[in-house]
Amino acid sequence: MVKASAASFTGVFTALVTPMRAGDGGPVVDDAGLARLVEVQVAAGVQGLVACGTTGEAATLTAEEQARVVRVVVEAAAGRVPVLAGVGSPSTTTSLSLGKAALSVGATGLLAVTPYYNRPPQEGLFQHFAALCSLGAPIVLYNVPGRTGCDLLPETVARLVERPEIVALKEASGSVLRMQSLSRLVGQRLSLLSGEDALNFPLYAVGASGTVSVLSNVAPKATVEVWNRFANGQHAEALALHQRLVPLCDLLFCEPNPIPAKSALHMMGQMDSLLRLPLVPMTAAGQSRLRAELFALGLLS
User: Fold this and answer.
1) At the N or C end, where does the chain have fewer CB atoms within 10 A?
2) Which one of 116, 142, 204, 262 is the catalytic residue?
3) For this structure, is 170 an active site residue?
4) From 100, 117, 170, 204, the catalytic residue
5) What is the pTM of this model?
6) Is 116 a catalytic residue?
7) Which residues contact 151 (CB under 8 A, 6 or more apart)?
8) In this predicted model, what pLDDT tens digit does every residue of 160-216 receive, in sequence order?
């Protein structure tokens, strides 16, 4: 049933924000705005899309809304790039249910974050991901210990890659050393993806074969260009462009993600900046710094 290999998951995968519009009971998903965002991303050359990840505010979407968001992204992408669906949950049963729903509306594969809050041990993590393999779809593991409270260790990843469904890992521990360890252990069997935009180039240099990016919501062409230049052996040029983008990377995380990303896209006229509680609008001081950086990069005129 697995239809994609690790080679299918390289390059820039945008962790899409979920555009929202005002509704009677608060912000609701803006299907048309989401479809427009997908078109901008595909036109900019991204190699893949992620719906319903952290950046997509999946934690505040109902299961029905998540399936709808995935469907809109799949339909808008129209087969031009693969679409991963986030299935994050502290419950394996819920993750399985989310995965089934996403696959039923056409998702290429699943982005599966380590179960958060309940802090499972390594054996629990192994069994959680092994259970998701029963869906028969490509799975991208996602390790972000700063958010989840648990760390998927390289030794556990090495056990998981024996499963053909496990095709990639988004590593967001913020450690270049961790990426080196993973590259040594599993780099020939797994696509390793940066999970932190400010470290994209350093992680490419030690074995990452792409990124799941927040930055590419706002600067997709430049994010893709860094990867393409690196992949083509133009390392000096890739580094120079990456360094230009680092201040924007920092600003996109100066307040909780995706608050700054939505604020930037609003400034750029692409969508509203509405968020669901408990997320709130970006501070005035943060907006001022962000606007200045967008001007400096030529993303605002």
Assistant:
1) C
2) 142
3) yes
4) 170
5) 0.96
6) no
7) 114, 143, 145, 173
8) 999 999 999 999 999 999 999 999 999 899 999 999 999 999 999 999 999 999 999
